[in-house]
Amino acid sequence: MPVPLLTDSAMRTSENQLTSMTADPSITVTVRDLRKHYTVHEKEPGIRGSLRSFVRRNSRQVHAVDGVSFDLEAGEMVGFLGPNGAGKTTTLKMLAGLLHPSGGQVRIGPYTPKERRTGFLKLITLVMGQKQQLIWDLPAYDSFLVNQAIYEVPDDQFKATMHEFIETLELEQIVKKQVRKLSLGERMKCELAAAPLHRPRVLFLDEPTIGLDVNMQVRIREFVADYNRRYNATVMLTSHYMADVTALCNRIIVIDKGRIIFDGDLSRLVEQTAPAKIIRLQLSTPVTVEHLASYGHVHSFDGLNVELKVPRAETTRIAARLLAELPVADVTIEDPPIEEIIGQMFSQMRAEQRDQAAAGEPASVA
Amino acid sequence: MRPRRYFRLIMLLAGASVSAQLEYRVNFLVNVASSILASGGALFGLSILFSDGQRVGGWTYREAIVVVGLFTLVEGFIATFLQPNLSRVSEAVRTGTMDFTLLKPIDSQFLVSAREVNIFRLSDILIGLGLMLWAVITLHSATPWGVALGIVLILAGLVIVYAIWFILTTTAFWFVNIENLTELFHGLFGAGQFPVTAFPGWTRIVFSFVVPVAFITTVPAEAFIGRADPARAVGAAAIALFLFFVARWFWKFAVRSYTSASS
Ligand SMILES: Nc1ncnc2c1ncn2[C@@H]1O[C@H](COP(=O)(O)OP(=O)(O)O)[C@@H](O)[C@H]1O
Ligand SMILES: [Mg+2]
Questions:
Q1: 3-state DSSP call for residue A180?
Q2: Number of domains in chain B
Q3: How far is the CA of A241 from the centre of ligand 2 (A)?
Q4: Of A88, A127, A130, B143, which alpha carbon lies 20 to 30 A from B92's?
């Protein structure tokens, strides 16, 4: 679906140039028809399967990323969502230059990622929530020093950046302890500080908050938002936690089976996919379910607290009627949670595919 | 390539590696004890071989000790500088942290080769040097020119060892477990503690050209005891250069195929 990409990032850019000396608005990301095919060798379980595949290999192509296109402007923060195996990690790795695309183009500023030029590598960073680069037996600070030397960060810049990161991530006590003695969350904070020490302009974050408790997630979000503001950095973030995305990103890109199925404002996604709103009522005297059902779908009900799901277009009218006709103590109107919206979007898509298949068109095989 | 930057990084990485090892203090004594025992064993073996005052393959006992010293030195070099780095490569491929290495704006071969130093095995290098020095001084046959050439040939030998190890390590990109391969190298390299000329003819060819053990210990030793063979010296340098470039090419090839299909 063609989507007009209207964000307020242009505005943010000019605002940031005042605060950030290094801002260079030309660092845009352009992705065109990007593809990655893996050849996988299939093997049946057990020793028999091993023997059979030893004699004759059964190979198959997996289209992990299947023609993805988008543009990111300098300073934009984009949430990259999709179910497991959708191709998020593969896409980020191609953007970071770790994987060679099977087809299509990527440009980041003046660079082509797969060439992995020094200038490019200094311009980006990739954080992978499931992998760690810190030296296990030493305090994180030692790893920071190694990165400083590798990226040739001048001493005064290193000190300033370090100071800033230690403050936002609350690392004071942590950076002096051996990494192996840190908790998962503490370690992740250090990983996150190690990755942008060279002040990259483009951050790829692949599930940076995975497995962390809510407090840690919030800290890390604040750090990313802060970094983005300070350096006008472009951020592309994948996460299992919708809160990460809703807190940080105005724009989201949704990918499924290697294809982009939505790209645009979060609010537009909500309007487009969630034709319902939720009206939450607190009543002063009980009302019967049957009576409530005449206003809309009763989502939950426990006597005095009611959640009604109503068509988006009629929300105001129904709310007015509820207020006039029922003993309402309090009322709130909200969108359904984003998890639900995206879940609904996927099930809608699956249903459409099924219909197409039933209509005789070839089904796309997972 | 700016040498100062690389030198600074080597020092920093070595410092980090050493402080990480100091976390585990007991290892030190164990390692010193094991390297003393190992060279003691080799000397004892030689003394039996030469017990009737005979020459073996044209070498006297004292001359053969130069070879043992060199062998211990090279073993120390492997244990101190190569083994700890290169065993990390297969681990990094297995756990996927190789990604971080490849994303750094620095030569990846340099980075994987210079990360670790096992200081506890430096004792091997010192013991090897001591043995060589003692044998060369008491032999009286050493010439200044021979010693200078010997030092150059040791360097060539170290390059050869590095290149072979590195090539074996690089196969980790395809065979994730490479323990067996490095064991194989160790087994073959064990032959280097004896002068190659002490072996029967065909093995000499194997140890010179298939696994160039001869160029690692015997050839530099010949220079030290004043018996340098110019042709073999040139051969050592040529093989060192050749293997170094093969190792470099192979690494680049492996990284290219990794980046076209890793997860
Ligand atoms: N190295 C690989 N070899 C074969 N298939 C792979 C490899 N890496 C990923 N895949 C497949 O590609 C698809 C996309 O994977 P990935 O990008 O990791 O998804 P996500 O990050 O969205 O969960 C999945 O079907 C996965 O099984
Ligand atoms: Mg993933």
A1: helix
A2: 1
A3: 13
A4: A88
Of all atoms in ligand 1, which is nearest to the CA of residue A87? 17
CATH 3.40.50.300 in chain A, residues?
A: 8-269
Segment B172-220, tens digit of pLDDT: 888 766 677 777 777 777 767 677 666 666 776 666 666 678 888 888 8
Task: Identify the CATH class of A8-269.
Answer: alpha beta
Contact present, B115 and B25 (Cβ < 8 Å): no
Contacts of B236 (CB under 8 A, 6+ apart): B153, B156, B157, B160, B215, B219, B220
**Containing structural domain, residue B203:** 2-261
* Residues of chain A with C-beta less than 8 angstroms from the C-beta of B19: 138, 142
pLDDT in tens, B64-77: 888 888 888 998 89
Mutual angle of helices A184-194 and A214-231, in 10-degree steps: 10
Q: Which two tokens stand for residue B67?
A: 């070879």
Summarize pLDDT for A26-38 with one digit per residue, the tens: 789 999 999 999 9
Q: Which residues of A231-248 are buried (b: 16+ CB within 10 A; e: fewer)?
A: bbbbbbbbbebbbbbebb
Query: Cβ of B95: how many Cβ atoms within 10 Å?
Result: 12
What CATH architecture does domain A275-334 belong to?
2-Layer Sandwich (3.30)
SS3 content of chain B, % helix, strand, coil (to 5): 80, 0, 20
State the distance between the two ends of chain B, measured CA to CA, in whole angstroms.
Answer: 31
A175 within ligand 1 shell (Cβ under 6 A): no
Chain A residues close to B97, C-beta within 8 Å:
131-133
Segments of chain A assigned to CATH 3.30.70: 275-334
What is the residue type of A300? S
Determine the Cα–Cα distance for residues B186 and B209; give it in Å rounded to an integer: 17
Is this prediction's ipTM beyond 0.85?
no
